[in-house]
Write a structure and sequence with these properties.
Elements (H helix, E strand, L loop, with lengths): L2 H8 L1 H60 L5 H10 L5
Helix pairs in contact: 1-2
Length: about 90
């Protein structure tokens, strides 16, 4: 629809308000699209870091068990069992 036709039908103040509202809508849509993509990128980074922390915990547990075995000490089986129940890897 032509802007001048809209002005003649509803009046200038209403046509200007509709135009300003559409401009605000486009601006917010553009800003939110950028924010959403940034949040998705950060979410992927956080998931990757969480996975690395889980892997590090498993490796530390393995080193602890091997060290205990090498030194002839009894490993703490209760702590190992707790860590095993929290381990949700799919390997």
């Amino acid at each position: 629809m032509d802007f001048l036709k809209l002005v003649t039908e509803v009046g200038f103040p209403i046509a200007a308000a509709i135009s300003a509202g559409y401009f605000v809508f486009l601006t917010l849509k553009f800003i939110l699209a950028g924010v959403t993509s940034s949040i998705n990128a950060m979410s992927g980074i956080i998931k990757g870091l969480d996975k690395r922390v889980d892997i590090m915990n498993n490796e530390v547990q393995t080193i602890d068990i091997k060290t205990s075995h090498a030194l002839g000490l009894r490993p703490n089986y209760e702590r190992i069992a707790r860590a095993e129940s929290d381990d949700h890897r799919k390997d």
